[in-house]
Automatic annotation (TrEMBL):
<dbReference type="InterPro" id="IPR015865">
    <property type="entry name" value="Riboflavin_kinase_bac/euk"/>
</dbReference>
<dbReference type="GO" id="GO:0009398">
    <property type="term" value="P:FMN biosynthetic process"/>
</dbReference>
<comment type="pathway">
    <text>Cofactor biosynthesis; FAD biosynthesis; FAD from FMN: step 1/1.</text>
</comment>
<dbReference type="InterPro" id="IPR023468">
    <property type="entry name" value="Riboflavin_kinase"/>
</dbReference>
<keyword id="KW-0808">Transferase</keyword>
<dbReference type="InterPro" id="IPR015864">
    <property type="entry name" value="FAD_synthase"/>
</dbReference>
<dbReference type="InterPro" id="IPR014729">
    <property type="entry name" value="Rossmann-like_a/b/a_fold"/>
</dbReference>
<keyword id="KW-0274">FAD</keyword>
<keyword id="KW-0547">Nucleotide-binding</keyword>
<dbReference type="GO" id="GO:0003919">
    <property type="term" value="F:FMN adenylyltransferase activity"/>
</dbReference>
<keyword id="KW-0285">Flavoprotein</keyword>
<keyword id="KW-0067">ATP-binding</keyword>
<dbReference type="GO" id="GO:0008531">
    <property type="term" value="F:riboflavin kinase activity"/>
</dbReference>
<dbReference type="GO" id="GO:0006747">
    <property type="term" value="P:FAD biosynthetic process"/>
</dbReference>
<dbReference type="GO" id="GO:0005524">
    <property type="term" value="F:ATP binding"/>
</dbReference>
<dbReference type="GO" id="GO:0009231">
    <property type="term" value="P:riboflavin biosynthetic process"/>
</dbReference>
<dbReference type="Pfam" id="PF01687">
    <property type="entry name" value="Flavokinase"/>
</dbReference>
């Protein structure tokens, strides 16, 4: 897959690449955060059309997410998002999205740095560049997509341009899934009720009556969203509802980061963990999970590969090392009073007989199932017993899923 990263000029204009003077393209546009099943429906149509008519399949993505960029600008006098400001609501890093697009078979990915100046470009100018530079023959969008300044480029208006000029076709995909639901405006504090028990949590909305759902929505100022949406997936992850979130994603939710030195208490307990820092992706609710630990290689090698991918075709990745893992997210309540450390951390214990030396490596942590909430144990022996049980659960779950 050919990847371009484009930075708009001060006036918001973009120097779009000229792909091919002879071969046309089918294009889709969006943030694609999470690449969930709604996004997949759009991308599958792109690939289907590209293969049918021998076109380039082109995906245009924005970094940072437009919603995050506009929210930041609103709070900072119209300023663009600085490079060192983290988007805590981002489900998946752009680099991970690019990896998945490559695996799907997309030909060209274009990542546009989303600035407030770029946001002022009209949808007509945008469409003109896609036709003139990218050779766009077909534009594929979801049902509620909108382009350009103030989102004036609605599906209806874009279709009028397509029919009026005859230079491209608009293909609208039903990416809404089974329907709509409601998600609270604020997610903080919601997990406590869902995670009160020791069994795997489930979507609290699923068992509500209509009256209960209305009362729940009103109390939490819940907004209407598509079930297949990044917003709904964030709500589920924040509630520890991994099974439901994975269903909407069409894969296991994952985060990536670098393995660093921690307190090394896991070694003394007999469960040496990989302490993951510099995390990219959305952290689920505090708790213990069954899942997988994937070694992506040394961090320096990963960065070098990312730089190379910007200007060259992506090469096939080597077989990655992957192990079942018991994953912990939280503040280590059994020891936090003793240590005075209350920072939220992610640790993954790879279930393997081999000694793993992963310091300085980038890893991916994949979440398969919630096991239990974080608990403050009375002793290290109690914690060890719980960890051993969690390891046994992890092996059973990973084997049952047929992914070991």
């Amino acid at each position: 897959m050919k990847t371009y990263r484009l930075n708009p000029a001060a006036n918001g204009s973009v120097d779009w690449p000229l792909l091919d003077r002879e071969r046309k393209s089918v294009v889709t546009i969006g943030a694609f955060d999470g690449l969930h099943r709604g996004h997949q429906a759009v991308l599958e149509r792109v690939l289907e059309t590209a293969h049918k008519f021998d076109l380039f399949s082109v995906v245009i993505m924005f970094e940072p997410r437009p919603g995050f960029a506009h929210a930041y600008a609103k709070q900072h006098d119209g300023a663009d998002v600085p490079a060192d400001v983290h988007d805590a609501d981002m489900l998946m890093s752009v680099d991970r999205r690019l990896e998945l697009l490559d695996e799907m078979g997309i030909d060209v990915a274009i990542v546009v740095h989303y600035t407030m100046a770029f946001a002022q470009q009209t949808y007509l100018s945008f469409l003109g560049n896609l036709v003139g530079k990218l050779g766009m023959r077909t534009l594929v969008l979801g049902k509620d997509a909108a382009l350009g300044a103030e989102r004036k480029g609605t599906i209806e208006r874009i279709n009028m341009v397509a029919e009026g000029t005859g230079t491209f076709e608009l293909d609208v995909v039903d990416d809404c899934g089974p329907g709509t639901t409601r998600v609270p405006m604020k997610l903080e504090g919601l997990a406590a009720d869902v995670l009160a028990g020791k069994s795997e949590p489930s979507d609290p909305r699923a068992t509500m009556t209509k009256a209960e759902f209305r009362a729940w929505s009103k109390k939490r100022q819940a907004k209407l969203v598509r079930e297949w949406s990044s917003t709904n997936i964030r709500f589920l992850l924040n509630s520890g509802c991994i099974a439901e979130a994975n269903e909407l994603l069409g894969r296991m939710h994952s985060v990536q980061g670098e393995v660093v030195h921690g307190e090394q208490r896991g070694r003394t307990l007999g469960f040496p963990t990989a302490n993951v820092d510099d995390i990219e992706g959305y952290m689920p609710a505090d708790g213990v999970y069954a899942g997988w630990l994937v070694d992506l290689g040394e961090a320096a090698d990963t960065a070098e590969a990312a730089d190379t991918a910007e200007t060259a075709e992506t090469e096939s990745a080597e077989e990655l090392r992957r192990w079942p893992a018991a994953i912990s997210i939280g503040t280590k309540p059994t020891y936090s009073e003793e240590t005075g450390l209350h920072e939220r951390v992610l640790e993954a214990y790879a279930v393997t007989d081999d000694w793993l030396e992963l310091y300085g490596h980038r890893v991916r942590v994949e979440f398969a199932q919630f096991l239990r909430p974080q608990v403050k144990f009375d002793s290290s022996e109690q914690l060890k017993a719980a960890l051993q049980h969690n390891v046994e659960q992890t092996l059973a779950i990973c084997t049952q899923n047929g992914t070991e």
